[in-house]
Write a structure and sequence with these properties.
Order of helices and strands of chain A: EEEEEEEEHHHEHHEEH
CATH architecture of the largest domain in chain A: Sandwich
CATH superfamily of the largest domain in chain A: Jelly Rolls
Helix content of chain A: 25-40%
Strand content of chain A: 15-25%
Number of helices of chain A: 6
Oligomer: homodimer
Largest sheet of chain A: 4 strands, antiparallel
Structural class of chain A: alpha+beta
Radius of gyration of chain A: 17 Å
Distance between the termini of chain A: 38 Å
Shape of chain A: globular
Amino acid sequence: MLMQNFNHSNAQGLPRTIPNRPGGAIEFLGMPKNFPCNAEIYGECEPAEYLYKIVSGTVKTYRVRIDGRRQIGGFYLPGDIFGVEVGEEHTFSAEAISDCQVLLINRRVIMARAACEPAVARELWALFGHESERMQHHILLLIRNAQERVASFLLEMAGPISKGSNIIKLPMTRRDIADYLGLTIETVCRTFANLEATAAIEVHSHRQIVLRNRSALRRLNG
Amino acid sequence: MLMQNFNHSNAQGLPRTIPNRPGGAIEFLGMPKNFPCNAEIYGECEPAEYLYKIVSGTVKTYRVRIDGRRQIGGFYLPGDIFGVEVGEEHTFSAEAISDCQVLLINRRVIMARAACEPAVARELWALFGHESERMQHHILLLIRNAQERVASFLLEMAGPISKGSNIIKLPMTRRDIADYLGLTIETVCRTFANLEATAAIEVHSHRQIVLRNRSALRRLNG
DNA sequence: CGATAATTTGATTTTTCTCAAGACGCGTGG
DNA sequence: CCACGCGTCTTGAGAAAAATCAAATTATCG
């Protein structure tokens, strides 16, 4: 394992808690489980038994196409819930990209609870809304050019400005970023270099980026 | 109104009915309404009062970004349900691209029914699953090259092979297609021309395409 | 039939990809 | 502690894809 371990959700290592993020009532039903970096959490087409809430670490979801190209569905940080499916099977695979602790929440149990507890039902509803927003955001991302995609990605990873520092620790590889943004590794690298040249960011090390000019990034973000 | 009116969902003008497509029990609660071509059905950020089921005609949903670029969310044909939202507001605008008849189904009524009728609840669930699939498909579309995107679009519009003829009537403009695929109009035109040159399709008229070689398109579709 | 909008085609520029080489970081074993 | 090896990352040069700008053609509607 050559990869450095990250257990931070952001610069502070604190769970990011977006206002109205769902998951409050549901998570008490979960049992914790640990996954080492690179462990598969579930595979595409497996039955969706659980919802997963991240306590620490980072997870990616992805699909591999027949021709070998890979699409990253999303990156999930502490506080995020992944594995949300409407159907009975997972449509993506999920893999830890750092050592992780995750709460496993049984889907059947949740569904049963939702039937009698309106609060649980509302939360479940909100989870779908959240996933839906995530996908719409991803679609809007993919119709833009490389600079705009990278800027959007960095702002997404940085979280809200209220969360403090501008130092982003990236737990994922350049390949993961490229496959999330629908670009090649080289284009991601060059775009980082461009953004650095225009003083919007600073590439401190491979895995650590400093935001120097958020409004420039936001301007790109559209 | 310079645009020709289309009231077909596909070559046959029949509602396309994908197996397991939801909407059976819900639609009886709807009241029909007609929209002329180019009429706005609802706008982004308006409260989501209704679900909409298309009886005849075609509808597009879209968003306009600050910089004026437009993203088409999807095209909806007879039998399709659009306007499905988890939140209280529409995240896209909807517009008729041909004269349309649409069933308006009150959201509150549906929600109330869902609470007591499991069949309605299941259907509502399935609607979200369907929208979710649609978005995932769109994401996978946008990471491909122009030929693959256009091929995928044509196969989508043609519907399953079982539905018979290979003649596709396109109710949308080239601009709509381009904005759906994240390409320019010119690239869409040229790709049509390329596909015609390789005998995969035949551009009969602006709005009528004949599929000459589905397996070639499917090969592109990945 | 003429006006207007939509579509197609061409020439050129810009963007991104591909292929290739070199640099860097990290862990291992001497 | 340092050298080595391996995988990741960066940079460069050239090719390919798509966008842009411009002009010509076709469709549609009054």
